Amino acid sequence: MPSTEKTVLIERIRLEDKTFQITTEASIGKLAASIARLGVMHSPILLSADSGYEVVCGFRRIAACKSLGVSEISARLLSPEMDKSTCVQLAIAENSLQRPLNLIETSRALVLLSGVYPDPDALCQAAGVLGLPDNYAAIRKLRQLSGLAPEIQEGVLSNILSMAMALELGQMEKSSGIGLSTLFGCLKLGLNKQREVLTMIQEIAFREHLTVKDILNAPELHQIMVHEKWDRSQKTLHLRQYLRRRRYPSITSVESDFEARVRSLDLVSGIALIPPRDFEGTTFSFHLNFNNLDELQYRLSRLTEVSSSHIMNNILNGCRISIQ
To answer: 318: pLDDT confidence band, cut at 50, 70 and 90?
Structure first.
């Protein structure tokens, strides 16, 4: 690959041109400290142009030097006639062959590579050589990540969002996808809870003829998120309860009635009455805790009294709902 080593003025380097940028790391503090102490260990690669130089590799090194007030940097210069395919492969190789790429960097690399290898077979072969996924189905999914809103990409980078969830949010109306990504990030929700919250919000929106954005902007939800005395776990609990009440008003109504009647039974400590799941079935159960035979006998005698209570009869006959 023909190139020449030359010292160039940093002011002539077009850092705003991100065509070949792969890395997502924006911080340059540690790198600048290293350069100040040891100098630039590896020269950046630049593409010569009439109006200056385009960065192929070394965005952070150049930015770090600029932050230190350095006016010149030694660089490898590629000829203006250098084909884009070579530039793309250089940009990817410098990153992918030296360290594991995160999902967004992998996506950027595959988008770049797809631009110079439109044929799927050639693309897969080139990707494999550069240490990237070489399955075309995987490549098609991964490429979508770099086109998502920055807020959703940040969710992927911070390991809050899986690729599948990020892509799903990316298919939604933009502000709704960003809003959900922000919500998941603030509460640090795991994948299962993300799926639960997303499903309930979508079902509420459908049921009430609203948009997902309308649900996210609900005053009740906002009050939960800004509550000063609740930590993330408490906010998550209250959020799920709020969404469940709104999604299943019949269930929550019956739940409240059930809890009030159970309190009227005046059950002793160590006895819990368990209703059918979602109050859809007919089978109730009692859960007993005891430490010795005396406690067991006492709780059993209390159960005998409860079984003849009219309140218990009302509970058995009153907790039936039709979920809509």
So the answer is: low
- Report the distance separating Cα 112 and Cα 124, nearest Å: 13
Q: What is the pLDDT of residue 259?
A: 78
Q: Are 107 and 143 in contact (CB under 8 A)?
A: yes
* CB count in 10 Å sphere of residue 63: 18
Rg over alpha carbons for the chain, rounded to the nearest Å, is 30
Site of tokens 């385009």: 54
Range of the structural domain that residue 19 is part of: 1-82
Please give the average per-residue pLDDT across 208-226, as a whole number: 95
User: What tokens were used for 202?
Assistant: 């979508």
Contact 78, 47 (CB under 8 A): yes
Task: Grade residue 108 by pLDDT with cuts at 50, 70 and 90.
Answer: very high
Instruction: Look up residue 11 and give its amino acid.
Output: E
Q: What is the pLDDT of residues 260-296, one digit of tens each?
A: 888 888 888 888 888 887 666 778 888 888 899 988 8
Report H helices in 39-102.
59-67, 84-96
Q: Based on the domain organization, do 271 and 202 belong to the same domain? A: no
Domain contains 193: yes
Number of other CB atoms surrounding residue 164 within 10 Å = 11
Name the 3-class secondary structure at 209. coil
Phi first, then psi, for residue 196 (nearest 5°) are: -65, -50
What is the distance between the alpha carbons of residues 123 and 161, in angstroms, rounded to a whole number? 27
Residue 97 belongs to a domain: no
Give the total number of structural domains in the chain.
3
Instruction: Report the C-alpha gap between 195 and 169 in whole angstroms.
Output: 11
* 143 assigned to some structural domain: no
How confident is the model over 25-29, as a mean pLDDT? Answer: 89
